[in-house]
């Protein structure tokens, strides 16, 4: 399933260089690359594997959101991590690619709290 962590305020963004540096620092086994091919909306692309689970993540070219193709628990961990790159007071929404659910990721939430957003909507 594809999950998103996106800014409610579309004028907000995480710069490519900041995202790459944070991925390399905090997820050292992730494979990070710049987008290639015909996916014009993708910018930074990364893959990460842990305990038999895999995640493919990518940021939108405008820096306003990340897409997380993975099991829910792993997506929730990355969404929380991304929250840490965003100043408090800026709304960051967790949803799926069909907007079947959505909720704000608040500073201090747990993986279970973020995962619960999928059931709360």
Question: Summarize this, please?
Answer:
The protein is of the alpha+beta class and 121 residues long. It has helices spanning 16-26, 72-83, 111-120; strands at 2-7, 31-34, 42-50, 53-60, 65-69, 92-96, 102-104.
How are the SSEs ordered, and which strands pair?
Elements: E1 2-7, H1 16-26, E2 31-34, E3 42-50, E4 53-60, E5 65-69, H2 72-83, E6 92-96, E7 102-104, H3 111-120
Antiparallel strand pairs: 1-5, 1-6, 2-3, 3-4, 4-5, 6-7
Structural write-up:
With 121 residues, the chain is α+β, with helices and mostly antiparallel strands. Helix content is 27%, strand content 33%. The chain is built from 3 helices and 7 strands. A 7-stranded antiparallel beta sheet has the order 2-3-4-5-1-6-7, with helices on one face. A hairpin with a 5-residue loop joins strand 6 (92-96) and strand 7 (102-104). The radius of gyration is 13 Å and the shape is globular.
Fraction of residues in helix? 25-40%
What radius of gyration results from the CA coordinates? 13 Å
Overall 3D form: globular
The structural class is alpha+beta
Query: Mean pLDDT score, rounded?
Result: 91
For the biggest β-sheet, the strand order reads 2-3-4-5-1-6-7
Q: Which stretches of 5+ consecutive residues score pLDDT under 50?
A: none
Q: How far from one another are the termini?
A: 17 Å
- Strand portion, in percent? 25-35%
Which H/E pattern describes the elements?
Answer: EHEEEEHEEH
Question: How many H/I helices?
Answer: 3
Query: How would you sum up the major sheet?
Result: 7 strands, antiparallel
Number of strands: 7
